[in-house]
Amino acid sequence: MKKHFITISVLLFFIVGARQYLDINNPDMQPYPLAFVPVLPLEDNAEEVNEFNEALNFDLELAGIFKVISPKAFIADTVKEGFSDKTIQFQNWADIGADGLIKGFLIKDGDKIKLEMRLFEVGTQKMVMNKVYNFDGAKVRYLAHSFANEVYKFYTGEKGIFLTKIVFVRKYMGEHSINIIDIDGSNEQKIVSNGSINILPSWHPMGTSILYTSFINHNPDLFEFIFSSKISRVVSNFSGLNVGGQYSPDGKKIALTLSRDDNSEIYILDTATNKFTRLTKDWGIDSSPSWSPDGKKIAFVSNRSGNPHIYIMNADGSDQKRITFKGTYNQTPKWSPKGDRILFTARDERNVFDIFYIDVSTLDIKRLTQDQGNNMEPSFSPNGQYIVFTSTRGGSSQLYIMTKDGLNQKRISSGKGECFTPAWSPFFKEE
Length: 431
Known about the structure:
globular, mainly beta, 42% strand, 2 domains, Neuraminidase, five-stranded mixed β-sheet, Rossmann fold
């Protein structure tokens, strides 16, 4: 019992009502030791079960809040001890440092197979979660992500991001297609593939559509791909630039960059009236708008001071002010879901691009990547705890994920070609 209380003090919990949660916003929090016993297959579904185990283990490690104990360290007879809090030898799990234990099993239910996943707390020797799923071999990764979300919420009190998706550009064989992918790199799908150059995708706040710019009509026009119809429609096609489209948090407006007045400026499009309103009126190049989560401010890039820097303004264009004063090339601002940070890409003195964030209230800047190729184009997860970005550390530009403080960096993209400008989806309704 003494060991249990020592663990609690180190891991940093906070209390909401009667429930204790891991304080994931405390930078001193240590990962929670968690053991996951791989599910054993039945006679003819080993491949599907292995895929489930692989996906769930990936999610638990990606979370960054767990220390996932290797099965090589297990001393318990994981089959003989069973799956109930009355039969599990919890001292064996305590001896290898586990505070949490995940076990699951498959059972035949007529012509169907059920998957039962259980979570135990080692210190209290109690089962604290029991989830039963219909085991569909075609959806094993979905089941893994669903259970990972449940585990994440149990320990943090917040929604997990394991069923969200990422949209990005894949460049291959001369084409720039718009693709979506699960956050573990699986289930990649092309949604826009027209033989042309398609760039800068972004999500509708409900996850129902994607804005992107395409050169299909020999001009950089803004389009919207609608998932329900799988059809793209023209949003803006003025002569010149129609790029960087970003929906407002309420979905009623689109901020974008137009060069219709012979200079790159930020505009707002009212989606109900189709009326465009110009926000910036400066000699410099203004681009890359990003909405604050309350919809009251917009971050953007401008070189009006001589070099590209990050600026913010009110959503009506008033009170424009510069917020970055270090470096000579700062770009791609992305506001955090909580409104406390703005991610951006900066080129350092070695002519290398890396990812930084600026604290909106203090204007303090923190570097998140370094000494691993060019790292660019960051985007926050919908809970603000993770970041997707591109990196050339492996030679070509690929997708990576890390925690909001730059830790636990993992590559998620594979396949041929290069990946650019990722944008993390919102939470979907079914989540």
